[in-house]
Amino acid sequence: MSSIQLRGVSKAYEVPVLRDVDLSVPDGEITALLGASGSGKTTLLRIIAGFEPADAGVVTLGDVVVDDGTRRVRPQHRGVGYVPQDAALFPHLSVAANVGFGLARKQRHTVESLLCTVGLTGLGHRYPHQLSGGQQQRVAVARALAIEPRIVLLDEPFGSLDAQLRETVRLDVMRILAESGTTTLLVTHDQDEAMSAADRVAMIEDGQVLAHRAPRQLYDRPRSPRAAASLGLANLLPGRWCPVGIDCALGVLPPADGCASRSDGTCTILIRPEQLLVSARSTTGVPARVTRVRFHGGTTLLDLATLDDGTALIAQVTGAEAATCRVDDTVRVRVSGTPHLWWDDSETTEGRGVQQATHSDTP
């Protein structure tokens, strides 16, 4: 077994960094730990690796407690492979020597096999300065796998690569880890990376794990407005129950979860940008003015303000609408499908009572 179990893990320096963190990564699963700089994600990774002690809580790897405040298993005895952001290769050692560092002499024959696995066959004689950034990261992964770890920890290993190379190397590395069945925890601040690379995503903010779910569940049905706003662009609108659905700035929306059992109440509605249908020719929907157009290649983001009350919205469009919409154009906006919502009197407390439209402002 190579699962990761964290229970009540806390850590503070001058100020608290981790606050009573609970996290479970099943055997063989890839989990992404997603958070902004300073959220505590790297500290959590270092505690799991054994580089830092937890101030409180219990860390269990497989069926072995490795840190519970009274005993700590040394990093080299935890069966963990660690890949740092900068690869951290030994510049005076060849690629083969870097990969084989720490292996017993009788195990050195596995080095060439590992280099083949990461796509570096025949490059064992080279030195780190003779490799590209992507190749260096592959060497770091091979070195981490050389000890046949139960668990691999990745600390933003693709962040220093350019966009195209980052995608290629990430796909290759995550494929290798998935095929080997290695339990993996990937630390990242990149939402796209977390959503595409992992079986589940754990969102961490201010030292607390807000949610830990499959990427699609986390995106479509987050547990709170706070979690929704932290993962991708989001329109968060106040709404009120009415007999035929939910009344909000975009009109009356179809009945959503929990409506059938209610006869009143206010809520916060989540509408993702791709759920908004925008048309300059339609006669249905709420009228709005285009306040900004942001071209992103295959898609375009439109910042909108409803004509009725100025509610701010963000929509994602493609095709003809993307090509023709201009600032100050008047368009019609309607919602596709049934949005997710949170009742303001429910047990969800994070972000309760959002009474304005909010969205991430990506330039």
From TrEMBL:
It comes from the Bacteria. Pfam families: ABC_tran, TOBE_2. Its EC number is 7.6.2.9. GO terms for molecular function: ABC-type ferric iron transporter activity; ABC-type quaternary ammonium compound transporting activity; ATP binding; ATP hydrolysis activity. InterPro entries: AAA+_ATPase (IPR003593), ABC_SmlMolc_Importer (IPR050093), ABC_transporter-like_ATP-bd (IPR003439), ABC_transporter-like_CS (IPR017871), ABC_transpr_FbpC (IPR015853), Mo/tungstate-bd_C_term_dom (IPR008995), P-loop_NTPase (IPR027417), Transp-assoc_OB_typ2 (IPR013611). Residues 4-231 form the ABC transporter domain. Keywords: ATP-binding, Cell membrane, Ion transport, Iron, Iron transport, Membrane, Nucleotide-binding, Transport. Residues 341-363 are annotated as: Disordered. SMART domains: AAA. GO terms for cellular component: ATP-binding cassette (ABC) transporter complex. This is ABC-type quaternary amine transporter. It comes from Leekyejoonella antrihumi. The lineage of its organism: Bacteria, Bacillati, Actinomycetota, Actinomycetes, Micrococcales.
